[in-house]
Amino acid sequence: MPYATLEALRAAVPASGSTDHEDHTRGIVDALIDGIRKATVTLTSADILALYDTPVEVVAAPGAGRFFVPHLIVARTSGGTTPYTVPDAVYIQVGDASWVEVSSLFSVVTGEQVATFIPAAVNYATTDVENGAITIYSLDDNPTDGDGTLTVTVWYSIEDVP
Fold this sequence. Notes:
Blueprint: H1 6-11, H2 19-34, E1 37-43, H3 45-49, E2 56-59, E3 66-80, E4 90-94, E5 97-101, E6 111-117, H4 126-129, E7 134-138, E8 149-160
Antiparallel strand pairs: 1-8, 2-7, 3-6, 3-8, 4-5, 4-7
């Protein structure tokens, strides 16, 4: 039976007598409706040079009781003539949980480069990720010396804290 809207599909989940089955089915339908989202941010040279002092927000926090699940990160460097010096690691994180180190991008910001990152499976406390924004930050100090820009695209979904 075709459904006029995805909301109609959500309403059509039948009662099965099994709460687990119904919750699981509703979760799948919610994922279809909400889908995978995409956010893109371009960091200027000034942004990159201040990543320790001023982390860059890619996606604002999703709200209490929710957290982000990253699926894919694509980063593109552009236009630099001088590589950055990164005193320590640069990460993309959700809340207080670092998931992807992207430091290598900054040492080669000359011309154009594209890199893809698939976040590894990691375990974090719910308190580390609940209602946490997706940000890019430098671990211990600001990068120095470089020029050029970095455009980061993150594909993610939003989940409810169980």
